[in-house]
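Good morning,

Attaching, inline, the backbone tokens for the sequence recovery test we're adding to the shared suite. The designed sequence is right after.
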């Protein structure tokens, strides 16, 4: 939380009254997002973009298995040195993004790929577990309904949590499917607006 303090003169007496306004700052663009073991999908999405913003080569080191050359460093080619540097950079960023418990989980890893996969399997599960999670979330998507007395914004946040969790697991729905799902999930008092939107959608070529 940051506070902005200023002053203003009163119109009658000329005295000065301090004026304060508070505003919430966004998250840093120069520090990696912190992962403390909860909400892995959210962290992984943000970390992917953060690494890509450093360089696409840095992010790529989490996606390809890296094996350090066995020859003496003096014999390494320029390309081998560049790849090793990218791996070290990615490892450093990942380590800096983890709290102590998560760091201890991957501290013996020798590559960014190994760190990323260890965290992924730990918090996302094996392929079988992943498919189970996808099935559960897909079912939640299909059965999604607006709660009674729930605001549109709260409903949309719940819906996006499901959609984003599925995307993080490699499963997505088209924008049209998402819109239709939301429209079909609204409570009866929204029927007229829902009908108008659906008619507009069907009229678009």
């Amino acid at each position: 939380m940051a506070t902005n303090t200023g002053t203003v003169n009163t119109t009658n007496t000329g005295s000065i009254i301090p004026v304060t306004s508070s505003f919430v700052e966004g998250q840093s663009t120069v520090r990696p997002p912190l992962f403390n073991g909860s909400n892995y999908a959210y962290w992984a999405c943000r970390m992917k973009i953060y690494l890509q913003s450093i360089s696409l080569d840095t992010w790529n080191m989490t996606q390809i298995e890296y094996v350090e050359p066995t020859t003496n460093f003096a014999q390494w080619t320029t390309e081998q040195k560049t790849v090793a540097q990218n791996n070290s950079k990615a490892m450093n960023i990942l380590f800096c993004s983890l709290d102590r418990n998560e760091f201890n989980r991957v501290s013996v890893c020798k590559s960014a790929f190994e760190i990323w996969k260890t965290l992924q399997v730990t918090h996302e599960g094996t392929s079988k577990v992943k498919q189970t999670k996808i099935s559960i979330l897909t079912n939640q998507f299909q059965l999604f309904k607006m709660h009674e007395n729930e605001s549109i914004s709260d409903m949309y946040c719940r819906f996006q949590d499901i959609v984003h969790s599925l995307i993080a697991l490699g499963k997505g729905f088209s924008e049209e499917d998402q819109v239709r799902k939301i429209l079909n999930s609204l409570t009866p008092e929204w029927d007229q607006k829902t009908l108008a939107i659906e008619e507009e959608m069907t009229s678009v070529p």
